[in-house]
Amino acid sequence: MDYLFVPDDIRSPKLGFESIGTEDDDLVVVFEDGTIGTIDDPDKANLSGGSRYVRRIGDIKDILKEPEFQEGTIDTEELAEKYYRNQIPIFTISIILLLAPLIDGRLFLARYEMSFLLLPISLIFAYFPEFILFRKIKDGKPSRIIFDIGEENSVELSSFGKASKSSKGSQTVRSGPRYFLGFVILAKAALPISTIEGSVNAFDPGSGIAFLLGSLFLIPILSLWAWIDTRRGPLHGEVKVKHASLREVYEFIREKWISGSLETISGLISEPEGQHLEFKSSIWTTYRNDTGEQVIGAAKNDKTEGSIIKTIAAFLNTYGGKLIIGVQDKPSRRVVGIEPDFEYSGLSKDIESFQNSLSDIICSSMKEDTIVGTYVKIDVESIEEKMVCIVTVRKRQPESWTYVDLKNWNGKPITDAFFVRNGPQSKLISSRASADEWKRSSEEHRDNWEFSDD
């Protein structure tokens, strides 16, 4: 099937596919804005306006880094083609074997008490395509898309491509072809039944042939239903979307994410600092507080470096957020770029050495070698002909919150400092006991926490 019918929505459904990684193998719908949803009961959906979709990714901005595509080992197109092609000869031979006794009674298996010995052979023959399909799926690895949305468990979609079996709880995929294929698979049971009807009391002699004749009567009806169903248009409230492969879904969402990320940078610079957003002029370069001008010839500034680490740790220990480096907040908001920091960032003094140096100070200050890449993402973008650094930070869980060491905190080093975010500020919780209390407290209690002036 090259297209599917899904419920219409204000976000404009664009693509449809079925993921084996979602609940009940739900049909996954990708919308025009790059977000995704699954179809559910309207009473359970958490979208307004009575939408039938439940959010899986509700905003493209929720994806913290570029979606990851992992190529599988299953050739879905070849697998589906072989599976359907093998059904025809097997079903035809089964009919011949079952109808042969009508020509020669000696071929009627019910006459022989030991005919049940043929049961394993008949089962393997009749369901050979299903056996091969199962083995290929079991031994192979499906393709996957992984979305990092800032939670402990990323959203993961896994699919076998266009060989969709349709959604269990949804009427949006044409049901005629599904029922037709299901009945053909069931009808193949006639041959195994014929091998045991002479030796097992559960079946009367001739049950296999009777089952086959009943199937042959219903199959044309189901074939007509499937033919009509594949040619119908969308019903009221439905919309026609492309039945996409997982690769097509990945490319579509990735393109939306990249374009959205660039728009987000421009938009972020006009936003005020807050719980999830902070701006810093630099990591090591010194700027005048009154004029905002760079202090030429100043030494590497450990205090501003500590401010960067403090903000990242506070985001980690609270709700996550973004730190924009290279944008000055005071005395006025303006882009100054990260280029002046290159002077202090390694031998090559370029973007790569800047990113590596920033990664090193984050990992060493937090005493975690893998914190960057798992909870902290470092990107560099160009805006107003200058480079800015966007540090995206995921929220951590209380059992893994972060303590940091700073070279310069109020003029002296500090170790195992615990910072949290309080509105547009990063606050120090000065004692280990208070930090433990913060971890155990509710979010409401944290929002009303009384901080010291340390």
Describe this structure in words.
It is a single chain. The chain is elongated and about 105 Å long. The N and C termini lie far apart (65 Å). It has a six-stranded mixed beta sheet with strand order 1-9-2-3-4-5, with helices on one face. A four-stranded mixed beta sheet has the order 10-11-15-14, with helices on both faces. It has a three-stranded antiparallel beta sheet with strand order 6-7-8, with helices on one face. By secondary structure, it is of the alpha+beta class. The protein has twelve helices and 18 strands. Helix content is 35%, strand content 21%. About 6% of the residues have low confidence. Among the domains are: 122 residues; 177 residues, Schlafen, AAA domain (Methyltransferase, Cobalt-precorrin-4 Transmethylase, Domain 2, 2-Layer Sandwich).
User: How is the biggest beta sheet arranged?
Assistant: 6 strands, mixed
The succession of helices and strands, N to C, reads EEEEEEHHHEEHHHEHEHEEEHHEEEEEHH
Number-wise, the strands total 18
| Total DSSP helices | 12
Strand order of the largest sheet: 1-9-2-3-4-5
Secondary structure category: alpha+beta
Q: What percent strand?
A: 15-25%
The helix content, as a percent range, equals: 25-40%
Average pLDDT level: 76
CATH topology of the domain at 271-447: Methyltransferase, Cobalt-precorrin-4 Transmethylase, Domain 2
General shape: elongated
Low-pLDDT residue spans: 21-25, 42-50, 161-173
First CA to last CA: what distance?
65 Å
What is the CATH architecture assignment of the domain at 271-447? Answer: 2-Layer Sandwich
Full CATH superfamily name of the domain at 271-447: Schlafen, AAA domain
- CATH C-level class of the domain at 271-447 is Alpha Beta
- Rg estimate, integer Å: 32 Å
